[in-house]
Write a structure and sequence with these properties.
The complex is a heterodimer of chains A (294) and B (359).
Chain A (H helix, E strand, L loop, with lengths): L15 H28 L3 H6 L12 H8 L11 H31 L5 H13 L3 H14 L5 H25 L3 H9 L4 H9 L4 H16 L3 H6 L7 H10 L7 H31 L6
Chain B lengths: L3 E10 L2 E11 L4 E5 L6 H9 L6 E6 L2 E2 L10 E4 L11 H11 L4 H15 L14 H13 L5 E5 L7 H17 L4 E6 L2 H7 L2 E6 L2 E6 L1 H6 L4 H6 L6 E10 L2 E6 L2 E4 L14 E6 L4 E3 L5 E11 L3 E7 L4 E7 L9 E6 L5 E4 L7
Helix pairs in contact in B: 2-3, 2-4, 3-4
Pfam family, one (chain B): ABC_tran
Keywords (chain B): ATP-binding, Nucleotide-binding, Transport
Family (chain B): Belongs to the ABC transporter superfamily.
């Protein structure tokens, strides 16, 4: 086959720039995966092996002791109950915060895109503005407000804070999604006699599955990874896992137990990691719909 | 008492005024088509009647009630949309019964009405399917069925056939006409940009442009006595021929003259409008031009021939004026052939060149 006439599928050739692209992608992948690998390996090693210093190597003697210790008996200051306390605190914060912020954003987005409330665009603009103001600005006023109302340092307090700060992005997400639905559907439902809630619950919500999934992913990862709000508003009893992880890592007396620290970190990262792995496709869609802040 | 009255209605989007005092009266049982190019405001008018757009000024009456401030569901209307607008997560049966369920109609009554509508539209076998399992034609049937079960006195159609292919469009068009005949006394308002739909379906057509009703009349009036140049040019395919010219005085009364072309005008054109020297536009439909060796207009050369089967279209010109004529399908011509034309003076329309209004 030297000079055959072009026929059928065009042959593909591996060119130099193509090889360059693949090489770059491979290096980038290693660059981002390496920290995860080192953490995982370190958490499975004994301290003796860690002292040898080969951080990338696979453990010669596999041990799950650090994971158990991190979960159940690592010390944060004077308490030695492990990171599990923080895990359950985080779950207790996460579930109501995610559910409430999504429910509110969903209804708000629906009202803004379909019901043409007077001044809807201005309200939406103000809401968006809220999304771009740095959180730190709100910390002191919020602390004062909650202290006055007596809610400060409670589960309710941290949940309210998460809901408030989740609202702009959730509203944006749902509004954009609903703006893409045919308006005639809403008109048909109105002619059929649907009211605000019946159209929402019977017509719009059943069509919202994709965006509900995206919203859940965003809120679960965002709220789980939160450190600042948890530290500021949750109170000592309800400190989330991220804060507790910081306390464990920073409160070492004597030898620094790297394997336990790494195991605790991995445990803390498990929820967002699982979310990313299970729902990567949906997460990309969330980014594509312009809903992920930097 | 008219079934639907639009009295001097104004609609505004923000500061932009869409309508400024539009009025329309529709009799009970009438089929009225709002016809016009996109952006002419026909859908906006329909939405205002439905109550989906609020009016700034004026009143809307349906069935003797002033419904200007009423919710869409309380206006006694049913509506069919271009995009079908079926609820995607509901079965056909649930789609059709949604309105009745909202109105808390007894279950037995809902079942009875859905069955009857499904029977009428031949979609009984589709009742348990979901919209995404239906073809476009079936979806629009379901959408019509959903409107039927409401037992409304007034049906509103917003370009219901525009998303369908040509053949289905013809089928459903006939079906809509049949439905209207079967449901005695049901008023229908139908929005379309398709003049064939308008001509075939309507008792009366309201031709709209620039958010105004240009002419309201029967299809026959619209076609044969268009009120202005826009209506004359918009309705009819192929288009009406227009010839710019002026009025001249002939031996037996006024004649139309444009270069070498002249045409004595029929007495029906009011004499007052025909003072000599007035600039006018003569409109003549392609089928009102005949081939006649003894005809007055000679020197035309056939430039383009189009075979349509039942009839043939010929584009011809004499160097100054281009005309289209419609000839019977069995007349065969060759390109380049010289033609002599005989216009039918009784069927021409005269328009004032300046205002475009019919004379």
């Amino acid at each position: 086959m030297t000079t055959s006439a072009p026929s059928g599928r065009k042959p593909r050739h591996l060119t130099v720039d193509r090889i360059g692209v693949y090489a770059f992608l491979a290096i980038a992948a290693v660059f981002f995966l390496l920290p995860l690998w080192i953490m995982l390996m370190t958490s499975l090693k004994t301290m003796e092996e860690i002292r040898l210093g080969s951080i990338i190597a696979f453990p010669s003697e596999l041990t799950f002791e650090p994971w158990l210790k991190a979960w159940a008996s690592a010390c944060t200051g004077l308490d030695c109950n492990g990171i599990r306390v923080g895990f359950w605190n985080s779950v207790k914060i996460l579930i109501p915060s995610v559910a409430l912020s999504i429910a509110l954003g969903c209804v708000t987005g629906y009202a803004l895109s379909f019901w043409r409330v007077k001044g809807a665009n201005m309200m939406f603009g103000i809401l968006l503005l809220g999304a771009f103001i740095p959180y730190q600005v709100f910390l002191y006023p919020l602390v004062r407000i909650f202290a006055t109302t007596g809610l400060y340092n409670s589960l309710a307090c941290i949940v309210i804070v998460h809901v408030i700060f989740g609202l702009p992005v959730m509203t944006l997400l749902f509004r954009n999604f609903y703006a893409g639905l045919p308006i005639e559907l809403f008109k048909a439902a109105r002619v059929d006699g649907g009211g605000f809630w019946s159209i929402f619950l019977l017509v719009i919500l059943p069509m919202s599955t994709p965006i509900l999934i995206v919203a859940t992913i965003l809120q679960v990862t965002g709220i789980w990874n939160d450190f600042l709000f948890g530290l500021t508003f949750a109170g000592r009893e309800n400190l989330p896992m991220t804060v507790q992880l910081n306390n464990i890592v920073n409160s070492t007396q004597g030898e620094r137990t790297y394997n336990v620290d790494m195991a605790a970190t991995m445990l803390t990262a498990i929820v967002p990691l699982a979310v990313y792995f299970v729902s990567g496709r949906w997460f990309v869609r969330g980014i594509a719909s312009g809903a992920v802040k930097g | 008492m008219s079934a639907v009255s639009v009295n001097d209605v104004s609609v505004a989007f923000g500061s932009l005024k869409v309508f400024d005092g539009i009025s329309l009266d529709i009799e009970e049982g009438e089929f009225v088509v709002l016809l016009g190019p996109s952006g002419c405001g026909k859908s906006t008018l329909l939405n205002a009647v439905a109550g989906l757009i609020e009016v700034e000024e004026g009143q809307i009456w349906i069935g003797g009630n002033n419904v200007t401030w009423e919710e869409p569901k309380d206006r006694g209307i049913a509506m069919v949309f271009q995009s079908y607008a079926l609820y995607p997560r509901m079965s056909v049966r649930e789609n059709m019964s949604f309105g009745l369920r909202m109105a808390k109609t007894p279950k037995a009554e809902i079942a009875r009405r859905v069955e009857r509508a499904a029977e009428l539209l031949q979609i009984a076998h589709l009742l348990d399917r979901r919209p995404d399992q239906l073809s476009g034609g079936q979806r629009q049937r379901v959408a019509i069925g959903r409107a039927l079960v409401r037992d409304a006195a007034v049906f509103l159609f917003d370009e219901p056939l525009s998303n369908l292919d040509a053949q289905l469009r013809n089928e459903l068009r006939v079906e809509i006409k049949r439905l209207h005949q079967q449901m005695n006394g049901t008023t229908m308002i139908y929005v379309t940009h398709d003049q064939i739909e308008a001509m075939t379906l309507a008792d009366r057509i309201a031709v709209m442009k620039d958010r105004r009703i240009q002419q309201l009349g029967t299809p026959h009036e619209i076609y044969h006595r268009p009120a202005n140049l826009f209506v004359a040019g918009f309705v009819g395919s192929p288009r009406m021929n227009f010839i710019e010219g002026r009025i001249d005085q002939g031996g037996e009364g006024p004649i139309f003259r444009s270069g070498a072309l002249a045409l004595p005008l029929a007495a029906e054109h009011a004499p007052r409008a025909l003072e000599t020297g007035r600039l006018v536009t003569l409109g003549i439909r392609p089928e009102h031009l005949a081939l006649d060796p003894a005809g007055p207009w000679d020197g035309f050369q056939a430039e383009l021939l189009e075979t349509h089967g039942a009839d043939n279209l010929v584009w011809c010109g004499n160097g100054q004026v281009s005309l289209q004529l419609r000839l019977p399908g069995d007349v065969s011509l060759k390109r380049g052939e010289m033609l002599t034309l005989a216009p039918d003076p009784a069927r021409v329309s005269l328009f004032d060149s300046e205002s475009g209004e019919r004379l």
